[in-house]
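cron nightly-structures :: item 1 of 1
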Amino acid sequence: MIQILIQKLLSILFPNKCIGCFSYTNNNKLLCNNCFNQIIIHKHFKCTKCHNKIDLNQNIKCCNQNNLYINSILYCMDYKNELVKELIHKFKYQGLKSTQLIFENILSQSLANHKEYFKNQNYIIIPVPLHKLKERTRGFNQSVIISNIISKILNIRSHNNIIIRFRNNPPQANQEDILKRQQNAQNIFKINENLKEMIKNKNIILVDDVFTTGSTLNECAKILKQNNANIIIGICLAR
């Protein structure tokens, strides 16, 4: 009771402002309704090669993808949108709970038309892991939080320890081009031998926060394919 009163008092003394237009907002919201409505929410899975829309009920992939191990990808927002970029930055580096509520709303809208497909398709959810040192420094893995939200929306179990990140590579954002991103993501993951049977013949939803070149997701998918996973698709907050 006291904590609630303190929070109400703080909200009166230090009211939140929208990160988009800087107007005052209610209930600790980071975005006012007007700014939230400026975010385009994507609702279609796409080919990881040509980015054409894919209907999961008809086909999982459309191109000859060669070394691409992810069959299709859903990214919910455009990372070029400065509001989206600011939200994800606050989520990853400040750990703000209020961003999670926004992402839950966005993911619910993105996945609304796909619930029926996932109902009986033998999927499990796996978040892209952080190296244990990076996770200890940050205090959480943002992909695990996103996975838990997706798990609740789709009613599919999320498993956090099937893939292990054993090499603490530099952040992908620091790499200048596609080739360097691909090289930076190589040989940094391995399968958890104690849990490898859990992915045998399973369909996988791989989850990450931002899809840029897809190098990190593809490297995770390669490890899963090498250990007898079946269909692998990706879900990310933004691209």
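cron nightly-structures :: done
The first helix runs from residue 2 to 13.
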